[in-house]
Amino acid sequence: MAVGVVAFPLLPLITRPNLWSSRLRRHRPTNHQVIEELKPGLNEMVLPKTSSSVFNSTNIDFILRSMNKRYLILAGCVTDQCVAHAVMDACDMGYMVTLVPEATATYSQQRQDAALEAIKGYCRMRSVEELALELLQPAVAAPS
């Protein structure tokens, strides 16, 4: 069974928008809830994230390596900030990264296009449809 890892940047931001500014991050409330649409599944971990890249403020690298994961599929917000940093860091750490551009977003189409252009050398990009077809194909055994 696949195990997913969900990294939320600042959990209250997805439950109570505009709760604080970046200057107040150290005063995070402890009673926040994840909105229903973003709740993790039974086999998904939640890693609160406090930096641009999930690799800098969580133990996700340790978790992924302990699970022998080498291939990552990334999506999220904000493409030209957190997503781009995560893609580049994952690549630098030796992971094989697939980005799903239609499952990312940022503040403008211009920023989206620029971010995708900037990180295209760090990852392969697939649409949701292309990725679904790849994942549904039977695995090809490596030659002996």
From TrEMBL:
Ranges for domain Isochorismatase-like: 25-122
Transmembrane segments: none
Keywords (A to Z) from UniProt: Hydrolase
Keyword presence, Hydrolase: yes
Gene Ontology molecular-function annotations: hydrolase activity
Metal-binding listed as a keyword: no
Alphabetical list of InterPro entries matching this protein: Isochorismatase-like_dom, Isochorismatase-like_hydrls, Isochorismatase-like_sf
Domain of life: Eukaryota
SUPFAM superfamilies xrefs: Isochorismatase-like hydrolases
Pfam families reported for this sequence: Isochorismatase (PF00857)
Annotated PANTHER family: ISOCHORISMATASE HYDROLASE, PEROXYUREIDOACRYLATE/UREIDOACRYLATE AMIDOHYDROLASE-RELATED
Family: Belongs to the isochorismatase family.
Protein name: Isochorismatase-like domain-containing protein
Species this protein is from: Volvox reticuliferus
Taxon lineage: Eukaryota, Viridiplantae, Chlorophyta, core chlorophytes, Chlorophyceae
